[in-house]
Structures are given as C-alpha cells and as structure tokens.
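Quick one, tokens below. Sequence please?
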C-alpha cells in the first residue's frame, strides 16, 4: 500500500509540474495575456487531467507573482503596476550589475569567448525578429535565448548564491513577461554584443556600468511602451 501511495504522489507531482510548465509557457508567450481569466475546469479538460494538479500549478504561479486569485472573481494572469515594473528593474539592476562585475573578474578565457558568441547570436536573432513574421514558437525561442545569455553571465561569475537570487526573484522571467506583453522584439544594433565585449575586458567598473546602462535601457523602453491606464487596472 505504501508503494502505491508513493507512486500516486509522484504521479500527482508530475502532473502538477506539467500543468505548471504549460500554463507558465502560455503566460510568457502571450497566449494568456495580462489580465486573462483562467478557468481551472477548462484547463483540466484541455490538459486531460483533474482539477487538483491545475490548482497546485496555479498556486505555485501565484506564489511567483504570475497569476492572482480574488474571491468571487476567480483567477487571472496578474497585471503588473508601474510600481511593480520599476521595482523589478531596481532589483534586476542590482543583481545583474554585480554578476557583470564578478564575471569580468573571474570568468575564464573560454567563458568570455562563449559570452561573446552568445551575445552576437542573440543580436542576430533579434535582428531577424525585427523583420517580422515570427511564429509564437520562434518568439519563445528568442526569449529563451535572451534568458540563457543573461543567466550564463551570472553562472560564470562563480557565485551560486547570486544565480539562486536571480532565479528566486524571477528576475529574467519577469523581464521575459514584460517584453512579451509590450511586444518588444526590436533592440539597438549590437545591443548584447557590445555588452559582452565590455564584460570580457577584465574591468569590473566598466562591466558594472555597462550592465546598469543595459538594464536601464530595457526598463525605460518597457515603461514607455506600456500604457499607464492599462497597468493601473491591476485590481478587479
């Protein structure tokens, strides 16, 4: 009996994880835009599972700040306020500028070359996206590539605690969400290549300043693209 119960527990956890990943992808890809209502029963039917793993997945997404639930209203994709977005970028600037500083100090030659390659490839992907015609799957791949570039800088800093902080605060996840919601797929030419070049120069001060400028450009662009009246409609 204990093995049967353990098997059912594992299966339930697997279903919850599957539901979490599918709902999260729908939110980050824009298939479920900000403010979209979420029906547990509808998702359960769509995913071919009971309401229980759907509820568990939504609870995790709510703890991460991607969805919100209100009595007599239901669950929906959370709409960030201007204050939310500004706060996100304050934290992102602090964490990623430190990652850039540490990267410039401790990254190996191979890691510097890798970041240069990733930056150039990412800029090429954004250049192609600016030509239009990307499918939803291609947009997801673009944002995943952007996620990997910034996360790799943190990983090469040599400090696991810093990587964990970036992941725990969902720094790059929210950046992905805001970019998708604002339809931000066009960036300045060589936006990431130039950043990677500065980070690879072994000058912590310049690396710090370059990353801060990089993040601030993103925050200013996002805030400019979002309509304040849409953002302020954050409560039902």
């Amino acid at each position: 009996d204990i093995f049967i119960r353990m098997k059912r527990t594992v299966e339930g956890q697997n279903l919850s994880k599957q539901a979490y990943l599918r709902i999260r992808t729908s939110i980050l890809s824009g298939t479920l835009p900000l403010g979209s209502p979420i029906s547990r029963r509808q998702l359960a039917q769509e995913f071919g599972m009971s309401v229980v793993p759907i509820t568990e997945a939504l609870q995790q997404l709510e703890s991460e700040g991607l969805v919100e639930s209100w009595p007599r209203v239901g669950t929906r994709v959370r709409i960030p306020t201007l204050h939310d977005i500004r706060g996100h970028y304050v934290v992102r600037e602090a964490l990623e500028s430190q990652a850039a500083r540490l990267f410039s100090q401790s990254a190996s030659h191979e890691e510097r070359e890798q970041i240069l390659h990733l930056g150039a490839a990412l800029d090429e992907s954004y250049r192609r996206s600016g030509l239009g015609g990307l499918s939803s799957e291609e947009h997801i791949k673009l944002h995943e590539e952007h996620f990997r570039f910034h996360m790799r800088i943190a990983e090469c800093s040599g400090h696991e605690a810093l990587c964990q902080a970036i992941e725990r605060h969902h720094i790059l996840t929210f950046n992905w969400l805001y970019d998708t919601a604002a339809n931000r797929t066009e960036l300045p030419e060589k936006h990431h290549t130039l950043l990677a070049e500065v980070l690879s120069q072994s000058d912590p001060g310049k690396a710090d300043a370059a990353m801060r400028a990089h993040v601030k450009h993103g925050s200013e662009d996002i805030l400019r693209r979002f309509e304040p009246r849409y953002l302020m409609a954050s409560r039902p």
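Strands lie at 37-38, 67-70, 74-77. Confidence is low (pLDDT under 50) at residues 2-12.
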